Amino acid sequence: MAENFYDEIEIEDMTYDGTLQIYHYPCPCGDRFEIGLADLLDGEDIGVCPSCSLMIKVIFEVEDLPQPPPGPGQAAPPVPV
Ligand SMILES: [Zn+2]
């Protein structure tokens, strides 16, 4: 693995935007790293800054994540292929 991460960030050090359902963290370029809650729940752990393309590795436990609100009338349905 030759990934070049800026840093490893604990999820509790990031800011959660409950409206957009993304976590963000200040980037040294002045923008911020972003990773979606859905991405985290999907096993992704890489936050990317859209301005400078730096990356962070997010340290988290799935159990620590807020659960996404279930869709209307549906509780965590399996995804049809
Ligand atoms: Zn940046």
Automatic annotation (TrEMBL):
Keywords: Iron, Metal-binding. GO terms for biological process: protein histidyl modification to diphthamide. Pathway: Protein modification; peptidyl-diphthamide biosynthesis. Pfam families: Zn_ribbon_CSL (PF05207). It catalyses: 2 [3Fe-4S](0)-[protein] + 2 Fe(2+)-[Dph3] + NADH = 2 [4Fe-4S](1+)-[protein] + 2 [Dph3] + NAD(+) + H(+); [3Fe-4S](1+)-[protein] + Fe(2+)-[Dph3] = [3Fe-4S](0)-[protein] + Fe(3+)-[Dph3]. One of its GO terms (molecular function) is metal ion binding. Residues 5-61 form the DPH-type MB domain. It comes from the Eukaryota. PROSITE patterns: DPH_MB. Its cofactor is Fe(2+). SUPFAM superfamilies: CSL zinc finger. Belongs to the DPH3 family. PANTHER family: DIPHTHAMIDE BIOSYNTHESIS PROTEIN 3, DPH3 HOMOLOG-RELATED. This is Diphthamide biosynthesis protein 3. It comes from Pseudogymnoascus verrucosus. The gene is DPH3.
